[in-house]
Amino acid sequence: MMRLLYALALGVTLGGLVHIATLFAVPLMAPGSAYDRLAGAAPVGRFAVLPEAGAETLPFRDPSFVVAACRYDLAAGPVAIRASLPSTYGSMSVHNRYGQPFYALTDKAATDGAVEVTILSSDDVAAAEVEEAPEGRPALRIVSPTATGFVLVRLFASGPSARPALRDLAGKASCDREPTRQISP
Description:
The chain is of the alpha+beta class. The protein has helices spanning about 1-30, 35, 125-130, 165-170, and strands at about 50, 65-75, 80-85, 90-95, 100-105, 115-120, 140-145, 150-155, 175. It has two domains: about 1-30; about 35-175, Immunoglobulin-like (Sandwich), CATH 2.60.40.1610. Strand 6 (about 115-120), helix 3 (about 125-130) and strand 7 (about 140-145) form a beta-alpha-beta unit. The longest helix has 28 residues, at about 1-30. The protein is globular. InterPro entries: DUF1254.
């Protein structure tokens, strides 16, 4: 009887561990990650306003928001993101290659109605810390856990009539390679 209980407890424990490992592995092994699905919207380094109809690109989107996306690749250096956010509500979120968000800002963090972020790889952090922002304002720098990822800008549309203006505003967001600077020793 004791052996049966021991085998049952061992089986349940092993089954639970396999279940948890499978859940963690699904996003990494799933074909067509969010980064890959956004490839059709725009090339790397350029924002694209996502179409309102259909959930093929990003499923489970809130229909009250206008969404723009930019894929980034840090292989050639840091990427500077700038987006204007309306006073009604707007947010910018930075995601790794697998779609997991690791940083987010709202319109409350905007300076003069815009947010500016520099996304760095862990190798670029030391060089960025030596540099000072030329305007005297501290720069917001984020270290990406992966070399590639994407940024989403979401703008709340209070009604159908607000959508065209918000689509124009989202389309003006920039996702540019940060200019390389020489750092003196």
